[in-house]
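Long-time lurker, first post. I've been practising inverse folding by hand and with some scripts of my own, and I keep getting stuck on stretches where the structure tokens seem ambiguous. Below is the full token string for one chain I'm working on. Before anyone asks, I'm not after the true native sequence, just a reasonable design that respects the backbone. If someone could post their per-position residues I'd love to compare against what I wrote down in my notebook.
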């Protein structure tokens, strides 16, 4: 708990410093735009996030309900909100999954069932993000939406990681024995290079991970309509999430001409290019990607206040509310 509080404080300090740096050169113009923003479009942006959140929670509910039908949608909404906090204060969003296992176990969902839900959710996410990233990549190349060289490199790396993660999940799901042998080969190499301390422990973790993915993948394959439904819901909620900047920019200048499809495509790339940044919330990476991608289609005067509103709505406010909910529920147990 002390580590979480320390990370939260560091995140607040980093955020204040980051937004000061972003707004300092254009502070007056940005402040004027923020203060004169259209309240209705801001509400649309917030409602869009809420719809995304409910659809995301519904997908998680379907996966949980498949292994334990006593877990309610209301509980899933609370779990999803608290997960925003733990994902938000840990690098690579690694804190959310262990928290979900812990929270589900308190509701009499066995650890093996919880792990099954998490792995299935990850597999569905990787399939969905691979589809979205390839569509976005093709669209950007066709229309010449190429950002700065550094950001384009980060984006290509992000797309590559997404595709590799997808194929690894499929590989472990279908060819478990082969996956174990390949993993053992890599672990031996890393051990010889003195990158890994314990070869046996690393191989045990890899074997367990392969078993989890194999079990989850085979369960998903038994009901193909279910996996199609899950992939559809995943693409749906990610597309809704990617709409938020559209309403943010409209709020800052209601007369602006902007294509919502372009916004979804660029928002998808922002998520992909920054998702592997090892900072809680992918801070700095998300802001950098947002600024440089939307410079391609949006007036520069709207970018700085736009990134502030977007991060508040899509990251900071949900994370803060999730943290408050967790502390309330945690204090009720004591």
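-- Answer (accepted) --
I ran through it position by position. Result:
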């Amino acid at each position: 708990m002390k580590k979480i509080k320390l990370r939260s404080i560091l995140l607040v300090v980093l955020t204040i410093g980051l937004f000061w740096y972003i707004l300092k050169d254009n502070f007056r113009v940005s402040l004027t735009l923020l203060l004169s923003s259209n309240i209705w479009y801001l509400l649309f942006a917030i409602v869009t996030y809420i719809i995304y959140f409910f659809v995301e929670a519904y997908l998680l509910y379907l996966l949980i309900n498949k292994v334990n039908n006593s877990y309610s949608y209301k509980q899933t909404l609370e779990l999803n909100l608290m997960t925003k906090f733990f994902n938000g204060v840990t690098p690579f969003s690694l804190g959310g999954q262990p928290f979900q296992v812990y929270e589900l176990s308190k509701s009499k969902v066995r650890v093996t069932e919880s792990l099954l839900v998490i792995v299935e959710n990850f597999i569905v996410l990787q399939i969905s993000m691979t589809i979205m990233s390839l569509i976005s990549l093709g669209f950007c190349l066709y229309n010449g939406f190429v950002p700065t060289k550094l950001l384009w490199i980060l984006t290509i790396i992000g797309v590559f990681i997404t595709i590799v993660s997808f194929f690894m999940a499929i590989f472990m799901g279908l060819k478990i024995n082969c996956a174990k042998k390949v993993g053992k080969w890599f672990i031996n190499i890393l051990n010889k290079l003195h990158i890994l301390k314990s070869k046996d422990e690393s191989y045990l973790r890899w074997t367990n991970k392969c078993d989890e993915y194999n079990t989850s993948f085979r369960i998903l394959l038994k009901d193909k309509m279910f996996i199609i439904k899950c992939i559809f819901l995943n693409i749906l909620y990610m597309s809704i999430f990617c709409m938020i900047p559209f309403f943010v920019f409209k709020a800052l200048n209601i007369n602006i001409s902007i294509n919502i499809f372009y916004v979804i495509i660029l928002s998808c790339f922002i998520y992909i290019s920054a998702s592997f940044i090892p900072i809680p919330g992918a801070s700095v990476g998300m802001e950098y990607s947002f600024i440089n991608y939307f410079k391609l289609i949006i007036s520069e005067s709207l970018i700085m206040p736009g990134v502030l509103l977007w991060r508040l709505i899509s990251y900071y406010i949900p994370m803060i509310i999730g943290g408050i909910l967790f502390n309330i529920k945690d204090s009720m147990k004591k």
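A couple of notes from the structure itself: The chain has a mean pLDDT of 83. The radius of gyration is 21 Å. Happy to go over any region you disagree with.
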